[in-house]
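ugh ok fine here u go
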Amino acid sequence: MRPLLYVLSAMVVIGLAFWAYRQNYATQQAIKQVARLQNEIGTLRDDLAMQQAEWAYENRPSRLRELVMLNFDRLPLMPMTPEQFGAIGQVAMPSAAPADGPGADTPTAMRPLKPSVAPPAAPKSGAIADSATASLSGPGKITHPVDTSASTKRQTP
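structure:
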């Protein structure tokens, strides 16, 4: 009976040694993979830092001003001013189509919704409130009409 116990014990020890050997190599391979991934992450972070520095360099305000001046004849770019913005009440809101009119076959989810609250009042002073157009001054004089009639009407659902 003892020899059988010795043989079984030796088989268990050999099995455990084989398992420990495989775990050791699997662990070493995982450690190498982690080191390779950390190296790649470090390289990518360095590349990202370099790209961010290049982006900051390319988007310097002085450089952009020079580019605008060089290309002004092709692209009449002007600085943004507060007069170029308007109130939400100046935007024409679409009205919902009647059930028997055009768009009656359009699903309800695709129909434009009426606003549930009144749009804010237009500012009392300023270029947009005083005139019906918002314009860019300069060569080329780009103008865009603004519908001010929508700001005076209150739409109810």
